Amino acid sequence: MDPTVPPPRTGRRRLRLAVMMGALAALVAGSLTVVTSQASAAETPLSQGRPVSASSTENGGSPASSAVDGNLGTRWASAFSDPQWLQVDLGAAATVNKVVLNWEAAYASAFTIQTSTNGSTWTTIHTTTAGTGGNQTLNVSGNGRYVRLNTTKRATQYGVSLWEFQVFGTGGTAPSQPPQGPIVRVAEFLAECPFTHRLPDDPIVFPGLPGGSHMHSFFGNPSTNANSNLASLQQANSSSCAPSIDISSYWVPTLYANNVPVEPTGTTFYYLGEGVNAETLARTQPIPLGLRIVAGNAKATGPNDPTSTARWSCLHAGQVNPGKDFVTCPAGTMMESYLDFPQCWNGRDLDSADHKSHMAYPVNNTCPASHPVPVPKLRQVLRYPVSGSPANFRLASGPGYTMHGDFFNAWPEAEMERRVRDCIRPVIKCGFDGHP
User: What is the C-alpha to C-alpha distance for residues 390 and 257, in angstroms, rounded to an integer?
Assistant: First the structure.
């Protein structure tokens, strides 16, 4: 120590240090108290991770699910038209007191917020014609299981787009948990839908024209006829399917053996995540409610016609080569028909003039730019109790290579969304109930 510098006043220095340390400790404690208080006040939206659906998507990279994933780096974007809607299923009745809309640059200047207990009857709890975009917090008061954003006027030339659609309140249910224990890594769920009735009707190709088609065998919704539409299928609210919640309608041309109609005894409809790469699979969206898909061609000209897509084979007779026309199955076996439906949607239309153009098959294991939205692939597997010479068989549409299938989707939106989320995207084999 320098002898010219007076020694420090250690008592006062220690006192000042003690006071400073005490103050610092108090400050830190106060800060920690504040931080803890803020953390405990954070709310998780009732909507986060819940099943969600939308009127449209701009492309496969902007699905409805991105609006409720809690990730501000992903978004839902609609087609470039009015009106549009986004709907979330909270899982159970809830009291809703706040909705937060985190808009991307493409926002809506006019919109409503609605709630519903059943997904069909709606009550408006907020309306505006002066939307500002950005991050809008709306204090509302409503009750229901479903919450819907209806946009009626876009503020830009584009569609409408949300980083997040957040619903706050009390009630609802927590998102389903990942399955426990061993799982089979196959992206699949299914429905077993026995035969219900025969009619010379086709509500997709010949709507409103009873008797206008060749004979069809129907599966699933027993109400299906030439006048069927989504509303009538939903009103019927019955099905031969397992699970019974699948009130969709499936139909094919009737098979005849020696001119006697024969119905399949095995009728399985698989929903698959195959035929596309991992990136496309991860983007798979629920099949939109009301979507109509036709696979195969009733007017195919021969087994080499590329529009003939069905395959015939024999159950438990692998030695018989499959083909596009009927095959000769040994006695005691059954003849099978396999038909894969297209799984790439254009993101806009539930049907098209030719009943085909709104859907496409993957190209190079991904959905083409013209049809950017991947949905589960529907695979129809029918097993007929017939064997022997193909000369004895015909379809109502003609030879075996004219086999085709029609699908009118009426799955409840929440159930379809859950199965895509829990079975298809994570590549898990699920049963009739949509669980591993």
Answer: 9
Residue 383: strand pairing partners = 266, 336
Distances (CA, A) of 31 to 27, 28, 35, 127: 6, 5, 6, 40
CA dihedral 7, 13, 14, 15 (to 10 degrees): 140
pLDDT in tens, 384-433: 999 999 999 999 999 999 999 999 999 999 999 999 999 999 999 999 99
Backbone dihedral angles phi then psi of residue 273, each to the nearest 5 degrees: -115, 40
Q: Is 265 left (phi over 0), alpha (psi -120 to 50) or beta?
A: alpha
Give yes or no for residue 25 having a pLDDT over 80: no
CATH T-level topology, domain 52-171: Jelly Rolls (2.60.120)
Q: What does the chain come to in residues?
A: 436
List of E strands, 31-179: 52-54, 76-77, 84-103, 108-116, 123-128, 135-154, 161-171
Q: How far is Cα 352 from Cα 330, in angstroms, rounded to an integer? A: 41
Domain assignments of the chain as residue spans, ordered by start: 52-171, 188-424
Biggest CA-to-CA distance, the chain: 124
Cross-strand bridge partners of residue 295: 405
Give bridge partners of residue 395 from the DSSP assignment: 255, 398
Closest CA to 56 of 346, 429, 367: 346
- Mean per-residue pLDDT for 297-325? 95
223, 175 contact by CB (below 8 A): no
How far apart CA 377 and CA 383 sit, in angstroms, is 19
Q: Cα 337 to chain center, whole Å?
A: 26
d(CA 111, CA 138): 12
**Is residue 250 within 8 Å of residue 197, measured between CB atoms?**
no
Tally of CB atoms within 10 A around 322: 12
Q: Which residue's structure tokens are 């249910």?
A: 173
Spatial separation of the C-alpha atoms in residues 136 and 65, rounded to whole Å = 20
> What order of strands is seen across the sheet that includes strand 393-395?
260-262, 255-257, 393-395
Helix (H, G, I), strand (E, B) or coil at 241: coil
Asked if 47 and 94 count as a contact pair (C-beta separation under 8 A), the reply is no
Per-residue pLDDT, 37: 32
- Whole-number Å distance between alpha carbons of 25 and 42: 26
State both tokens at 76.
Answer: 């839902």
